[in-house]
Design brief:
297 residues, eight-stranded parallel β-barrel
């Protein structure tokens, strides 16, 4: 279990009595370069609840307890080799008020409107940060989920919104992290196509979004044929940790192989590391950090 306590009572008091404390904490936050000295980046992700995705390894509401989630994040962020976090405003602001984001890379999650299980799931609307808010908070970039269903007219709106976000972030000189999938409905459920060809196609579509790709990064799943996937782009790429279905040892072995490919700069991992089978968040995070950066810095 996590071993780093979060003062929830103080958080609740600040939020009720001093909402301006959020902006004050953001302004006072010590920033750092985007990449580590080795040119790598490891982020923990915590934007799942905002998209109605709470389940981890058979526990349907594993991420529902905000205090527990924050403690797990605080443990992860305290470990050497963890460069920063990806999250929605509610989570990032809790972490700001806890002082957990000092000297960390912070990526803001922008579109969480495609709620898991909803009839409108593939309508990935921008319901969280916009580029101006990311810049105003002093964060380092914005991330957008961009699911592409060739049979769903809503995909056109998603692509247009993602393109606008890429352009707006670039105007601020901020990373635009695009997470593309070719998706479709199967028996009413949204499924991402994780075949090599489908991921390559998604890379081609995502890479061209916006008026410039100068600040665009890709966040891609690890699939069979990653050599072919990475040959499809020159954009810097972070690997998506994915859902924690396999054993940790199998997962780490797959990550290690993919991290060695040209263009891959690191990992963005959420539930796999924050909710490991044995509950040892620090150990899971340390293992992933070694894969990204080598031995602890």
């Amino acid at each position: 279990m996590p071993d780093r306590r979060v003062d929830l009572e103080r958080l609740r008091e600040l939020r009720a009595l001093r909402p301006a404390a959020v902006a004050e904490a953001a302004a006072a936050r010590r920033r750092r370069p985007l990449l580590s000295p080795g040119g790598r980046l490891m982020l923990v992700a915590a934007d799942h609840p905002a998209r109605n995705a709470f389940a981890v390894r058979g526990r349907p509401m594993a991420m529902a307890d905000r205090g527990e989630l924050l403690e797990r994040l605080a443990v992860a962020l305290s470990r050497p080799g963890v460069d920063g976090v990806l999250g929605t405003a509610d989570v990032l602001e809790d972490l700001l008020l806890c002082g957990a984001l000092d000297g960390k890379v912070v990526i803001a999650s922008m579109n969480r409107g495609g709620l898991a299980g909803a009839a409108f799931e593939l309508d990935d609307r921008f319901t969280a940060y916009d580029a101006d808010a990311v810049a105003a908070a002093g964060f380092d970039g914005g991330k957008m989920l961009t699911r592409i269903d060739l049979a769903d007219p809503a995909t056109a709106d998603t692509l247009e919104a993602s393109a606008r976000a890429v352009t707006a972030l670039a105007r601020h000189g901020l990373m635009a992290m695009v997470e593309p999938f070719l998706s479709r409905r199967v028996d009413g459920q949204v499924r991402n196509d994780l075949s090599t060809d489908a991921v390559v196609r998604s890379v081609g579509i995502a890479s061209a979004l916006g008026a410039t790709s100068a600040y665009t990064w890709l966040k891609l799943p690890v699939v069979d044929g990653m050599e072919t996937v990475m040959a499809a782009t020159t954009l810097p790429t972070l690997l998506l940790g994915g859902d924690p279905d396999e054993s940790p040892e199998e997962t780490y072995a797959v990550w290690e192989k993919a991290l060695a490919l040209p263009g891959v700069r690191g990992l963005v991992v959420g539930r796999t590391l924050l909710y490991p089978p044995d509950g040892e968040v620090a150990a899971a995070v340390d293992t992933a950090a070694r894969l990204v950066h080598g031995e602890p810095r």
